[in-house]
Design a protein that fits this description.
The protein is mainly β and 215 residues long. The protein is built from 4 helices and 12 strands.
Length: 215
């Protein structure tokens, strides 16, 4: 579990392609503090397991499902990625509850200046719009952001100058793809409301049954 507060931007050192998979080596520093083999590190919002940890890097495997769902398959050597290590019970929850299970990719369709801020419009599959609400939270490349605009199949977020410097969204341009994780609570609510009700099991205990058995 994560908070969506990006700790640092790492840089891709190498990518090794496999059979419907890949292994990435990422240069970083802050997320390695206290990290150990097998720990989870959100990489562009995707929960990855560190299979090797060095002094200033970690290595992670990406399986087929990860490559299908996320923008990690688009990475190239020297690209920057957002990084956050998994939280503990003592971690301040400054963003919102983020699982690191990316729903889909979104595409940046517009970037415009609004005073000191930049507003990014992101198009995503219409299916996932039901989990996005105005002034709710959405995770873009692992960063917890507030939804300020809603379209039929798009959302808009605003970045202050500090955020533009601290997360990779500030480096992206129109046409680039980003990872999207929608609200976890909305998914559970939908599941509970749509799950078919089971018929209550009727007890076989009755007055006739008691009488037939000598009671």
């Amino acid at each position: 579990m994560f908070t969506g507060l990006v700790e640092e931007m790492g840089r891709v050192l190498s990518i090794t392609e496999g059979n419907h998979s890949m292994q990435i080596k990422i240069q970083c520093k802050k997320v390695l503090e206290g990290a150990k083999l097998g720990d989870s590190i959100a990489t562009n919002g995707t929960c990855l397991t560190a299979v090797e940890i060095g002094k200033d890097y970690f290595v992670a495997d990406c399986m087929h499902e990860t490559m299908k769902r996320t923008n990690l398959h688009r990475l190239k050597k020297s690209d920057f990625v957002n990084l956050e290590k998994s939280i503990t019970l003592s971690t301040p929850l400054g963003g919102h509850l983020v699982t690191g299970d990316v729903d889909c990719e979104g595409k940046i369709t517009n970037i415009r200046q609004d005073g000191i801020a930049k507003i990014y419009t992101v198009e995503l599959p219409k299916y996932y719009m039901k989990y996005v609400v105005e002034k709710g939270r959405v995770t873009l490349d692992g960063a917890s952001l507030t939804v300020m605009e809603l379209g039929d199949s798009s959302l808009g977020v605003s970045l202050i100058p500090h955020s533009q410097e601290m997360i990779i969204l500030g480096k992206k341009k129109v046409g680039d793809y980003i990872n999207i994780e929608t609200d976890l609570i909305g998914k559970y609510v939908e599941k509970l409301l749509s799950f078919p009700k089971q018929e209550e099991k009727k007890s076989k205990l009755s007055l006739d049954f008691l009488a037939e058995n000598g009671f």
